């Protein structure tokens, strides 16, 4: 009797698999696709020539904006497809030494750093090393015992951190000022129980802390410090040789110094060293280097 039941079970399983495959094939057959579709294209692509023709006007607009908003120095560029077609700068990168800003000046790009963090997470996902639906506590054990707001709150996932839907409260400008904090501080913050303004997945709310946690996850999964992973897997493959994490690594005379306009004068804004919050805003790069990253996308 047992061999018969075992054979019957195998036959039923095989039959079930065949039916599922057939259903999937039928579903695919029902989807119709256009045979005449062509991606949009330019009959006469004059974009680059037109942009270059507007270079002087664009420079005047940037300069007017710089003066109106009291910005010491600006470097800017325009990327078309995979080419930096226009780049220039205006103002000063260092007021004390009267050094002009240039396309080779290294600026801290703040929250544009988050794009590199997101790219690294997706790369690790594509390699099968993590899933966006994984609980963040799977990689950061200090998040395992957090107290959520409601009994039906889902656990924070990597996707929540990426999309800023973890439920953490808006943390600007506090988050920016944590740039040089240690990894231990970040983990202790999670272990002590961070504040929540919403249950996870309920609403979007800008979170620097969420991206700092993504940096910690990248380190855990890759086995490399976050900054080292980004350099090895994104910066160097794109030949971004003039991009840095630490202000002390920027060659002399190339770092844009930070200032704030206060009491009708420029005041020096102390620059923070790199730390656990680097994944949310620590990258330092030039307009020429950054254009390589933009072109890649």
The portion of residues forming beta strands comes to 5-15%
Helix content: 40-55%
Task: Provide the structure class.
Answer: alpha+beta
Our measurement of the CA-to-CA distance between the termini, rounded to an integer number of angstroms, reads: 63 Å
Instruction: Give the overall average pLDDT.
Output: 92
Describe this structure in words.
The protein is α+β, with helices and mostly antiparallel strands and 297 residues long. The protein folds into two domains: 48-113 and 240-296, DD-peptidase/beta-lactamase superfamily (Beta-lactamase), CATH 3.40.710.10; 114-232, DD-peptidase/beta-lactamase superfamily (Beta-lactamase), CATH 3.40.710.10. It is built from ten helices and seven strands. α4 packs parallel to α7. The longest helix has 29 residues, at 2-30. The radius of gyration is 25 Å and the shape is globular.
Strand and helix layout:
Layout: H1 2-30, H2 47-53, H3 55-68, E1 73-80, E2 83-94, E3 99-100, E4 107-108, H4 113-126, H5 158-163, H6 183-192, H7 208-222, H8 226-235, E5 259-262, E6 265-268, H9 278-281, E7 284-285, H10 287-296
Antiparallel strand pairs: 1-2, 2-3, 4-7, 5-6
């Amino acid at each position: 009797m047992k061999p018969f039941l075992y054979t019957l079970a195998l036959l039923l399983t095989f039959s079930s698999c065949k039916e599922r495959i057939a259903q999937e094939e039928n579903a695919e057959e029902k989807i119709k696709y256009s045979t005449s579709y062509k991606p949009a294209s330019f009959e006469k692509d004059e974009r680059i020539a037109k942009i270059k023709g507007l270079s002087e006007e664009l420079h005047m607009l940037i300069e007017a904006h710089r003066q109106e908003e009291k910005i010491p120095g600006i470097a800017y560029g325009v990327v078309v497809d995979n080419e930096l077609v226009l780049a220039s700068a205006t103002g000063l990168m260092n007021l004390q030494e009267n050094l002009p800003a240039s396309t080779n000046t290294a600026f801290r790009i703040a929250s544009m750093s988050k794009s590199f963090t997101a790219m690294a997470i997706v790369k690790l996902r594509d390699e099968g090393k993590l899933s966006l639906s994984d609980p963040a506590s799977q990689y950061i054990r200090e998040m395992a015992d957090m107290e959520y707001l409601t009994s039906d709150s889902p656990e924070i996932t990597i996707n929540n951190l990426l999309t800023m839907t973890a439920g953490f409260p808006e943390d600007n400008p506090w988050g920016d000022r944590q740039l040089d904090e240690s990894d231990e501080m970040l983990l202790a913050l999670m272990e002590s129980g961070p504040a929540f303004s919403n249950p996870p997945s309920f609403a979007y709310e800008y979170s620097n802390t969420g991206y700092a946690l993504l940096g910690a996850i990248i380190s855990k999964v890759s086995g490399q410090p976050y900054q080292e992973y980004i350099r090895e897997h994104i910066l160097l493959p794109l030949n971004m040789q003039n991009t840095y994490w630490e202000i002390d690594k920027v060659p002399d005379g190339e770092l844009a110094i930070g200032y704030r306009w206060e009491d009708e004068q420029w005041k020096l804004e102390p620059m923070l060293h790199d730390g656990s919050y680097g994944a949310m805003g620590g990258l330092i790069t030039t307009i020429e280097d950054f254009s390589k990253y933009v072109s890649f996308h």
